[in-house]
Amino acid sequence: MIDAPAGDALFALYPILARLPEAARDRLRSRARIIGVPAGTTLFDERQACQGFPFVLSGSIRVIKAAPNGRELPLYRVTPGETCIISSACLLGQAPYNARGVTEAETRLLLLPVEDFQALLAETAFRDFVFQLFSERIADLMQLIEEVAFRKLDQRLAALLLGKGTRIHTTHQHLADELGSVREIVSRLLKGLAEQGLVALSREQVEILDPAGLRRLAGG
């Protein structure tokens, strides 16, 4: 059972839930549970059964697809007010997870048990919410497929850097993880950008020197 402050936070972040009938809202309050996890925690992994439907109250979850060789492709992030399409798909299809979810920061979420998720699908407002989520995430994933399939890695790296500000505090490994590549390749590309005068590199920092040049590279 969740307390009143947690319930208020839930309905503020997910206003669609306020449209549920009172009995459905009461069921959600009484059956859901709050979970707090530190950064870097694996919330779910491939071939695991889904334990419930998550609502993120604070923090964020990074959802990735991992290859046997250790490479990872980031699929999307789940932040407060959003939820996880892969969890929805697993619950609807009664199938195990086919991706991994890892907390990026200390995260607090509300977990709705499987049987209560199934029951709430009978409510039009909740069902519309779930399928709207599918629509939005599928559009995001189609864009990701287009990026990976049709844009070269140096273009994607340039676009990624431009979206992070002028002075970026990060590691080559973290950039590689975001791009679904490996550190050695990203380090080589960054060195090439530095040799062209587009960026300056220092320990765990990338400074953008020529944003116009990076934009030309990102645009192909």
Automatic annotation (TrEMBL):
GO cellular component terms attached to this protein's record: cytosol
Cited InterPro entries: cNMP-bd_dom, cNMP-bd_dom_sf, Env_Response_Regulators, HTH_CRP, RmlC-like_jellyroll, WH-like_DNA-bd_sf, WH_DNA-bd_sf
Cross-referenced PROSITE patterns: CNMP_BINDING_3, HTH_CRP_2
SUPFAM superfamilies named in the record: cAMP-binding domain-like, Winged helix' DNA-binding domain
Leader sequence segment: none
Ranges for domain Cyclic nucleotide-binding: 16-125
Domain HTH crp-type: 151-212
Gene3D superfamilies recorded: Jelly Rolls, Winged helix-like DNA-binding domain superfamily/Winged helix DNA-binding domain
Keywords of this entry: DNA-binding, Transcription, Transcription regulation
Any Pfam family matching the protein: cNMP_binding
Gene Ontology molecular-function annotations: DNA binding; DNA-binding transcription factor activity
Name of the protein this chain belongs to: Crp/Fnr family transcriptional regulator
